[in-house]
Write a structure and sequence with these properties.
Elements: E1 3-6, E2 21-24, E3 27-34, H1 48-65, E4 73-80, H2 86-97, E5 103-108, E6 119-126
Parallel strand pairs: 4-5
Antiparallel strand pairs: 1-2, 2-3, 3-6, 4-6
């Protein structure tokens, strides 16, 4: 497969030298994404719920740009700065993912690169084809 990379419009601007999406055939990988509102460039909120909801909304836009959706997610990694945010992250996660609950890993981290970020997520998925 050829690897194609992209960062679609209406998604947060990457803070480093990378694109959000890498696609190889039907396989998709989306890199670490914070809860940044793409319209303002600011965090969607100070809390884990608002940030997690924004991440999943951004994922939906990214996936749609390459012929996929949240129902085709295979695995999600969640990186939390504070495990006390686990419940609020899960609340947003279930609201956005619905009944599709793919494999998931939650990892506690000491720091994240953008100030104020409480969590980031990345994922693997497949296209609808």
């Amino acid at each position: 497969y050829t690897v194609e990379t992209s960062t679609p419009p209406n998604t947060p601007t990457p803070i480093g030298p990378y694109n959000h999406i890498a696609k190889a055939g039907p396989f998709l990988s989306i890199g670490g994404t914070a809860g940044v509102n793409p319209a303002t460039g600011l965090l969607a909120g100070d809390d884990a719920y608002a940030q997690a909801a924004q991440i999943l909304d951004s994922f939906a836009v990214m996936l749609a740009s390459v012929g996929s959706d949240l129902q085709h997610v295979v695995h999600v990694n969640v990186f939390l700065k504070d495990m006390r945010d686990f419940g609020e992250m899960n609340r947003a996660y279930v609201e956005k993912m619905g009944s599709h609950l793919p494999a998931r890993t939650v990892i506690g981290v000491n720091e994240l690169p953008k100030p104020g970020v409480r969590l980031t997520m990345n994922l693997t998925a497949v296209t609808r084809e």
